[in-house]
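Practice problem: predict the structure.
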Amino acid sequence: MWSWAYVDQGYTGEAAAQAAAKHGIQLAVVKHTQAKRGFVLLPRRWVVERSFAWAARFPRLDYERLSASLAGYHYFAFAWLMLAQLFKLLNQS
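Answer:
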C-alpha cells in the first residue's frame, strides 16, 4: 500500500522518487501547465499550505533541536489536529 505525497517541481527526478519509495511514498508532482507570472493556484497545492498553517499553531515545532523529538512532536501535533477535525464531524451529525 502506497501513501501519496504532493510535491512541487523541485522534487522531480529519479533520486527523489527512489528516496520516497524506500518509505512507501509515491510522489505526485504538481506542475504548472505553462509558464506564468504572478500567483497561480495549482491543484492540490492548498492541501500542503493548509497543513503548514495548521502546524504553525504549535510553536514547539519551530524550536526543537533533535530530529527524533521533532518527528514525535509532528506526529503529536497532527494527531491532535485530526482528532479535532473528527470531533467537529461527529458533532455536526
